[in-house]
Amino acid sequence: MQTHLPNIVKELLDSYRTVGGINNLDGSNLPSKRAVAVLCADLLQLIFPGFLDEKVNHSVELRESTYGRVESFARRLKAEVNKSLRLVKPECPDDEPRRAVLHLLESLPVIREILLSDVEAAFEGDPASVSFDEIILAYPCIEAIAIQRCAHRLYRLKVPLIPRMMTEWAHSRTGIDIHPGAHIGTHFFIDHGTGVVIGETCVIGSHVKLYHGVTLGAKSFQKDDEGRILKGGKRHPDVEDNVTIYPNSTVLGGETVIGENSTIGGNVFLQHSVPANSLVYYEETQLKIVPKRHREPLSVRGGSAVLPGQYVPPKGGVEAWCDWSI
Predict the structure, then answer these.
(1) What is the residue extent of each domain of the chain?
(2) Domain 26-176 has CATH 1.10.150.170
(3) CATH topology for the 195-289 domain
(4) What gap in Å lies between CA 214 and CA 199, rounded to an integer?
(5) Residues whose CB falls within 8 Å of the CB of residue 170, separated by 6 or more in sequence, listed in order
(6) Mean pLDDT confidence for 39-44
(7) What's the predicted TM-score (pTM) here?
(8) Given pLDDT bands bounded at 50, 70 and 90, which one contains residue 203?
(9) CB 145 within 8 Å of CB 16
(10) Is the per-residue pLDDT at 232 higher than 90?
(11) Which residues are CB-contacts of 267 (< 8 A; sequence separation ≥ 6)?
(12) What is the DSSP string of 155-169?
């Protein structure tokens, strides 16, 4: 092993020199992925006090413990935001990351009120739910939505990298991919959740319910004369109030609007708008259900039935083969 290491290191250093675009040598320090992950976990503790702690959070100690958590969170997030902003503005004043952190922290009471409406929507929308406690502790959508609502505040302030790192942390834990740019109203519920994708320019109204596998995505992208994808613009659909979208449906396009009070059935593929109060579904025309036909055992030998598909070794010069017939 040791004899091979010098050559491996040399080839790796050569790669650093020749393969550009994925190096950050002699550049600004990047936000730490591990630090952002810890910050997301701490943020959930601030939002849902007493739910995610390993020890009891007593009310008499709440002011002191909350102050300590907020102070620690603010200091650590400011350091990561500072790294992020200096990537695009090397001379970024120290006051700018401070303002971004304060904006998020001052928004937490409002975010908590909206998240309460999300928990209520989950309780009302899922007959299997038994309590708010169960929803906060066990439903992946609450974690994903909570992080997205916080990341959205930083996204609106044009903080680079960190909002996306936050939502991807939630995505890796829950299977729910919500871009921090998406604007989402109150009483939002994602049932089951796995495989849901919500794009950057989505605008989602209030009292919207999605099931697993739903994609609110973009159509094929426009390109410039050199074949490069044109960035920006409205690329993802709008979903108005009181809409339900059932599993594995796909809605694409920045001009697509799902009108209020509409229901989109399962496995629907949409690239155009739907008026209010619509029901959209595929009518089953090919599905068939027919009874199975079972063959009786062809023979009984020594008290044992010869089952369909079973090979019976020769005995007395006789073989038996049985096969399935549909």
Answers:
(1) 26-176, 195-289, 292-326
(2) no
(3) UDP N-Acetylglucosamine Acyltransferase; domain 1 (2.160.10)
(4) 11
(5) 40, 143, 144, 147, 148, 176, 178
(6) 97
(7) 0.83
(8) very high
(9) no
(10) no
(11) 247, 248, 249, 282
(12) HHTT--SHHHHHHHH
